[in-house]
Amino acid sequence: MSKKQSLRWQIGEVSVSCITELLLPVEYYEKYPFMREARPEALQEIPWLYPNFVSPEGELLISIQALLVQTKGFNLLVDTCVGNDKPRKITANQALNTEFLHDLAATGCDREAINYVVCTHLHVDHVGWNTMKVKDSWQPTFPNARYLLGRDEYDYWSKSDSEDQMPVMEDSIAPIFEAGLVDLVETNHRISDEVRLVPTAGHTPGHVSVVIESTGEKALITGDMMHHPCQIARPHWTVSFDEDQEIAARCRVNVLKELADSPTLVIGTHFAAPTAGKVVSDKDGYRFDF
Question: Dihedral of CA 91/136/145/71: which sign?
């Protein structure tokens, strides 16, 4: 694990702060690769990835983090990481004990001040802090928030018998329903004049990204529409966890076309620091200008 960095951006009158839970170097495995095409030698053909996004050993540097969006009217948390006290495959079946809530409070916004939680999708590393362990039960971490979950996304995973997904639904999703804090929303849901969801399916069927527009400035929080900046240069590279790799790649191509050479700030949900930048044309493709 690497040292955490404090990151914050201003989009018009809206601020976005990054609360990092984990920084993970992902080694390439021939048999079970995270991203099959991202071999060390292939990454070397994209020199701007170094040293921020790829280690000297050719590991993809992946960050698990939440994005705190603050407007004049509300505080919104986008994605809630893995969470404490939950043994998961992603953490080698070890329960985390991080200072995530302390780091959130250090931004000036503690958990009780969160008005909305948006989960771009319902994978393990995007819903974990929806709940926290209180004695022997799972309670909503953000008791004053409305949890905005995609209707299509929830319908899909609530019917899943995946051994990995079932515990996630039980300890990170079911308790917020039981507390009456969930609003099932469409993939184009608008939260306010400044913040809205946009459909970016492929990684999961109901996946969304978050668009922020304020006083003429614009940002996009990617969710898992992209996992790593190498996919800006190689949008056809897919991760093993994409539910539909073809749709995911097509989505990236279309989004990158729209973003290229525009002033839109792209905030990568899994991008290691510096995390945010612009997509610019580069030879026959694109690069990340940060």
Answer: negative
Q: What is the predicted pLDDT for the residue at 288? A: 98
Per the DSSP assignment, residues forming a β-bridge with 70 are 15, 75
Q: Where are the beta strands (DSSP E) in the chain?
A: 7-11, 14-26, 60-70, 75-78, 116-118, 131-134, 137-140, 146-150, 182-185, 195-199, 208-214, 217-221, 265-267, 276-282, 285-289
3-state secondary structure (DSSP) of residue 260: coil
**Amino acid present at 210:** V
Tens-digit pLDDT profile for residues 178-220: 999 999 999 999 999 999 999 999 999 999 999 999 999 999 9
For 232, phi and psi rounded to 5 degrees?
-75, -40
Specify the higher pLDDT residue, 3 or 191.
Answer: 191
> What is the secondary structure of 29-58 as a DSSP string?
-SSS-SBTT--HHHHTT-GGGTTTTB-TTS
How far, in Å, CA of 232 to CA of 41, rounded? 17
d(C-alpha 266, C-alpha 23), whole Å: 19
C-alpha span between 28 and 170 (Å, rounded): 31
CA distance 289 to 48: 9
Q: DSSP 3-state helix, strand, coil percentages of the chain (rounded to 5)?
A: 25, 35, 45
Q: What does the alpha-carbon distance between residue 64 and residue 68 come to, in Å, rounded to a whole number?
A: 14
Q: Which residue type, as a one-letter code, is found at position 182?
A: V
- Reply yes or no on whether the pLDDT at 88 is more than 90: yes
pLDDT one-digit tens code per residue, 15-46: 999 999 999 999 998 878 999 999 999 999 99
